[in-house]
Structure to design on (569 residues):
């Protein structure tokens, strides 16, 4: 392996019209190593002083105007930005997305199940998206290096050898993976996923406006309410409510009928078993509320005083291809805390969410005449109709039932949702599991073609060989189900039909919206998305134009047999 110590060697290489594969940089003190490859046989590693790397960094990873292959380019940007090596002023628009191949993104599209994370020490790693795993799977190549060995030996030469080897693998994967993608999947990769990578990175850098002072006040209030709730739960007894083992013992002593093996409690916790019986035990509901409030308190303590939050937005973290935020997971905080997300002075927030997107998708897929009729009727309301059909007299409960179908919930999860809703309204007429199941059966009684659609597709897929079992979205996104069919797989199968298409809708709208903002030289930017909702921050004088554009881009993101509608505030 030739370790090149001349930055000048890289310049003509990067300007080549042939594909160049680049690794992420390995930075140790004031020295940087980068692997690069011009062909599978011609791979090298270049050693740069840190100041040389900083000068070249935009050319390496941002000003991509010639064919380039990477493995996880957005993650490289995040890594560089976190270390201040790619400041805002060095980011320009000289990036031609058509010249980029991202092997990590392609591998995810070929197998969305690779989004699963495994524990690796104190970290979680998407093992199936590592170069070592992909080399074995697609190149029949055993990866010869272990980062722990390199660290233990502290070998600069070995590290350079590994990076050169990695660059060669990236080059080979960039040649191999496109040929494994269907025409539709390749188009999805080019037209949606690669441009979305830029949108998500921009969202991270721009961040979300945040009421940091209000957050600090709310943190103190939450601490007090949490202490009062703990006193109410324990009655002054010494119980560590953060320990599932302690809580389990406490509940058993209080007469709650739990029979779980100690190993199960240690390994999996007791949240799920408690949710199954919460409808019958007020004490259990209070403990679950304490845990939820504690999660909110952790968020409040971490971000008190901040004026903007910059989550990492991932497009390869969900098997149904939804976009997820981490550090912090802003999509998972309570609705009450979302009020802390505020625009900067002089700006406004435009919030737009699809109206019942997954149910509309279900109407399109199943062609259930009654469900299609409701959505094609300008005055139709599926939640009201479900409420009337089941004799509930409560639209909000009917709404939970309808969405339970989309999310593949069973009676247990639906029971919990409805009882939480009722408790929040100060009601005590809680339902049991049998009642929840009767609601699910009632939905299918009202819209029988929905059940027939799911049952028919499930029976069809079970007959196929493992690698042929897949759910394909309207624009060609695929999720495979190669393992032996189980009840959990059936639930995932049902959920995938709607969530996969919903993800396509959102991603298409985001890419189109960001593109039109830039073409019109607008200052508006997408700052957050929550599954079926987009938040845009814009100057006051752009508000009306933004509202119009957001609605148009979202309602025309796909053609269904029922109209897509958007609620804007």
């Amino acid at each position: 392996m030739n370790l090149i110590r001349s930055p000048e060697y890289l310049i003509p290489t990067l300007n080549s019209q042939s594909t160049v594969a680049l690794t992420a940089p390995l930075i140790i003190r004031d020295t940087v190593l980068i692997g690069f490859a011009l062909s599978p046989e011609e791979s090298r590693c270049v050693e740069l002083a840190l100041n040389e790397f900083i000068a070249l960094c935009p050319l390496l990873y941002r000003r991509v105007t010639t064919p380039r292959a990477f493995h996880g380019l957005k993650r490289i940007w995040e890594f560089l930005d976190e270390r201040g090596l790619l400041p805002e002023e060095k980011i320009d628009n000289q990036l031609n997305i058509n010249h980029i191949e991202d092997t990590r993104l392609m591998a995810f599209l070929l197998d969305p199940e690779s989004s699963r994370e495994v524990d690796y020490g104190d970290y979680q790693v998407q093992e199936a998206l590592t170069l070592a795993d992909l080399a074995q799977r697609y190149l029949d190549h055993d990866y010869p290096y272990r980062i722990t060995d390199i660290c233990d030996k502290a070998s600069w030469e070995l590290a350079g050898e590994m990076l050169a080897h990695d660059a060669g693998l990236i080059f080979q994967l960039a040649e191999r993976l496109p040929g494994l993608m269907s025409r539709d999947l390749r188009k999805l990769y080019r037209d949606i996923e690669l441009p979305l990578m830029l949108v998500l990175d921009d969202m991270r850098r721009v961040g979300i406006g945040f009421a940091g002072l209000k957050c600090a006040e709310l943190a103190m209030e939450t601490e007090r309410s949490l202490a009062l709730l703990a006193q109410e739960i324990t009655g002054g007894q010494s119980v560590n409510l953060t320990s599932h083992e302690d809580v389990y013992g406490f509940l058993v002593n209080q007469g709650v009928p739990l029979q779980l093996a100690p190993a199960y409690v240690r390994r999996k916790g007791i949240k799920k078993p408690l949710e199954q019986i919460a409808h019958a035990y007020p004490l259990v509901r209070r403990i679950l509320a304490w845990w939820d409030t504690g999660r909110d308190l952790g968020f409040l303590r971490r971000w008190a005083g901040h004026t903007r939050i910059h989550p990492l937005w991932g497009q390869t973290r969900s098997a149904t291809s939804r976009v997820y935020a981490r550090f912090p997971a802003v999509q998972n905080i309570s609705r009450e805390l979302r009020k802390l997300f505020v625009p900067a002075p002089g700006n406004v927030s435009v919030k737009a969410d699809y109206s019942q997107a997954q149910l509309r998708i279900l109407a399109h897929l199943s062609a259930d005449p009654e469900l299609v009729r409701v959505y094609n009727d300008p005055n139709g309301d599926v939640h009201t109709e479900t409420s009337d059909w089941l004799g509930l007299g409560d639209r909000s409960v009917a709404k939970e039932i309808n969405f339970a179908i989309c999310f593949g919930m069973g009676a247990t999860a639906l029971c919990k949702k409805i009882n939480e809703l009722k408790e929040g309204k100060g009601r005590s007429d809680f339902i049991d599991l049998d009642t929840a199941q009767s609601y699910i059966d009632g939905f299918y009684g009202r819209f029988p073609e929905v059940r027939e659609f799911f049952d028919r597709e499930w029976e069809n897929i079970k007959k196929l060989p493992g690698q042929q079992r897949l759910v394909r979205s309207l624009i060609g996104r695929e999720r495979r189900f190669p393992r032996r069919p189980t009840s959990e797989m059936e639930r995932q199968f049902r959920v995938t039909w709607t969530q996969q298409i919903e993800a396509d809708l959102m991603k298409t709208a985001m890419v189109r919206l960001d593109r039109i903002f830039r073409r019109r030289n607008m200052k508006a930017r997408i700052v957050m998305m929550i599954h079926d909702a987009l938040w845009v921050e814009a100057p006051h004088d752009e508000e009306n134009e933004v509202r119009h554009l957001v609605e148009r881009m979202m309602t025309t993101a796909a053609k269904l047999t029922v109209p897509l509608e958007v609620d804007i505030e």
